[in-house]
Amino acid sequence: GPEGKHGANYMQTMAASVAGMCGMAVLIQARYWLGLPEVPAWQLVLFYGCIGMFGVGVGMLYTPIVVDRMQLNFPSGFAVANILRALTDKNLLKRSIAKLGSGMLGGYVGGLASLKIPSVEALGISTSTFGAGMIVGARIALPALVVAVIGDRLKPYLVSIGWLDAGAPFRKIGFIIALGTILGAAIVDVSLILFEAIQRLRLKQAPPAGPAPDWKRVNMVGLVIWVACWGAAVVVAGHAVLGEPLRFLLIAVGLVFLFVLVNGISIGISDSNPISSAFVMTVFILAACGLTDAGTGLMCGSILLIACSEGGDMQQDRSTGWRLGTNRIVQFRYQVIGIAMGAVLAVVLARIYLSAYPVLMADQFGGHVEGAEKWQSAMTYKFVGALRGITTAQPHVMKALALGVAIGLLTEIARKLIKRNRRYKEFASRTRGGFATDFVLDSFLLPSPYASSFGGFVELLTTVWWAAGGLLASIYDTVQAKLKPRASNGTDSEIPADMSTMSLVGGGLIAGDSLSALSVGIYGLLRTVL
Predict the structure, then answer these.
(1) pTM
(2) CA 93, CA 113: separation in Å to the nearest integer?
(3) Residue 488 scores a pLDDT above 50
(4) Which residue, of 50, 150, 237, 397, has the fewest CB within 10 Å?
(5) CA-CA distance, 485 to 482, in Å (whole number)?
(6) CA-CA distance, 45 to 31, in Å (whole number)?
């Protein structure tokens, strides 16, 4: 029934927290690659649990900015909201089941094919990436392709100046530049938000009458206390239990407040949470502060990895709750339950998988390992590479970061000046030439750094599928608008405006691809264990 959407949102929130924490098993795998001694399970559970609780608190702190204020898309959160709305409303279900179901079937079949058929796998197809592109549209998807193509063409130059190794993909340095562009753009946006808040305080505007709706209600005092207590718990657990240096733990906890905001904006725009980038950047920053021990780097980087993962999930789930009108405080409690369970399962499942597949413990970074080609271990590869490089001076990394910040800062300032100009807004909204100009500006000439940064985080082929989905959706919507003008009355008016055909099909593709990965993973594990 109608209220079922809230209950389903609570369950989905809890499940996402468990899943996000379970993914942190890569940290245990990295310990084996680095040859570090094992840490007692209870110590890891305690440390990971404290970080997760801290991360969801920080994520909730920024939710009023990225969800309520900026109202970012959060493609996966959008997809979940559409699915839950459709499944809990008979009228919506009748009108959307074909679109949603066809998307899920296509995503499932495409996901299985990409995992099991070598010729399809070689194409690099990802139905979830294609579906996410359909949700965000061309103006968000195309900039990533532009950046990825530029980076691919610049590889010889980057190799010549020592920023990239011969044969290495652009994203090996591109993710640093991309992270910088997000930081630069975030500086502009956060500054504007703070300025507007100060202006409102000066005007002494009265608060709106009546209580805030459930989806927007937050106990800010309690939340600040929560963040402070769990932040302290992370430091205490890391220092008193694990024996890590206090200075590096404090720096890592401080960096969480920066990266959870930046990563949250990235998820909201492109559905990409660059948690591995946050980990790597933390390692480089700590190295600049004197860090030389890989084990300490792994533990301190874990703070950023887990906090950004769970903080981003918090914001993603709140975007779903915003669209469903779900009680935000209750949703927070379910996420906390998921964190507690996930901290235990992260350690348990790591032991199960490492025992079932011993090849996962072999150090792929040191050279070819027989049988390891079936397990890319991409995130572990990044972690180990960064940790082994902390004793080597890498000034080009900080230069790349500074370049990215400058690009993001200048781009976002220029976009704000142009987009807020009254004459430009009239030109873009009232004429065909203006619409085309605005499209070219957003997609190619001066794209949002939040959107274009995706091209630095992933391979070129991934951005091709991402852009293809966005382009298809924009073309479809444009053609539909011309062929079928919106009627003031009729059956289509009963469907929410944000449940378009492309969003439903795209959401179905994301869900279907996820289900295919789950099916393959469970089948492979059971076959090996049994």
Answers:
(1) 0.70
(2) 28
(3) no
(4) 150
(5) 6
(6) 15
